[in-house]
Design brief:
This protein has a two-stranded antiparallel ribbon with strand order 1-2. The two termini are about 25 Å apart. The chain is built from four helices and two strands, in the order H-H-E-E-H-H. The protein has helices at about 1-15, 25-50, 65-85, 85-90, and strands at about 50-55, 60. The relative contact order is 0.17.
């Protein structure tokens, strides 16, 4: 899925450089990127097709692409919280190195989870 790969390239180096993720977080980042790719694809399909479809029996039902989009947004939200990719979760994420701030400014916090190591 090209979109997932692009998202991986966009995030992995940046998050690792900030000390937010390590090699141990690879599966979580991959799952986030895959959900992101599926969400983008579902949203594209929703632009091409109606959100509500009529069944052969005449009933109206939501497009399957709507369910796919919604499910992947839920998955993305879960992984975004875990990886510090939302504003709220970023405020709780600690990094493993300094951000290059000048003396007197607050240094980057150290990682709170001892189970993660830098790459």
């Amino acid at each position: 899925m090209p979109t997932a790969k692009t998202e991986w390239k966009r995030l992995a180096h940046h998050l690792h450089g900030l000390g937010i993720i390590s090699e141990l977080d690879r599966a979580a980042l991959a799952a986030y990127c895959q959900a992101y790719g599926r969400w983008v694809e579902a949203e594209r399909k929703l632009k091409e097709t109606p959100a509500l479809l009529r069944t052969p029996a005449g009933y109206v039902q939501p497009s399957p692409w709507l369910a796919i989009s919604n499910k992947n947004v839920e998955l993305m939200h879960k992984f975004m919280s875990e990886l510090g990719l939302s504003p709220v979760s970023r405020s709780r994420v600690a990094t493993t190195h300094h951000t290059g701030q000048s003396p007197g400014s607050s240094p980057a916090r150290t990682r709170t989870s001892s189970s993660r190591e830098k790459l």
